[in-house]
Amino acid sequence: MGNHEISIHYLQEYIKSKDYHPEQVPGYFLRLAEEVGELSRAIRKNLCPLDDLQIKETIEEELWDVIYYAIAIANCYDIELEKIIPMKENINNVKHQTGIVFSPSK
């Protein structure tokens, strides 16, 4: 598989275009919790793909499912993650005294 740059903005728009149901936030949250459990199982069993085409029930697949539902929830609240992430990371860096400023290149 080739290398692709995918922005968080693109992911939010993509997910919103196919799965946007603000009235279902509790359902999205339950799916997120379920996917975290599946990710936990995949990590515990060190389930890695055998090749690039076999990701079913692997850490890779479950991690995407967690990200998917987190983004779906953000969409329901009209949260622009690309705006919030730098703000939160800078708070974390001050709190943990990392000396690092979160400043992604444009």
Describe this protein's structure:
There is one protein chain. The chain has 106 residues and is mainly alpha-helical. It contains four helices and no strands. The chain has helices at 8-18, 25-44, 59-76, 81-95. Helix 1 (8-18) packs across helix 3 (59-76) and helix 2 (25-44) packs antiparallel against helix 3. The chain is globular, with a radius of gyration of 16 Å. The model has no long low-confidence stretch (mean pLDDT 94).
What order do the helices and strands come in, and which of them pair?
Layout: H1 8-18, H2 25-44, H3 59-76, H4 81-95
Helix pairs in contact: 1-3, 2-3
Shape: globular
User: What value does the Rg take, in angstroms?
Assistant: 16 Å
- Main sheet: strands, sense, barrel: none
| DSSP, total strands | 0
Distance between the termini: 25 Å
Approximate helicity band = 55-70%
How many helical stretches? Answer: 4
Pattern of helices and strands? HHHH
Short description:
The protein has 106 residues and is mainly alpha-helical.
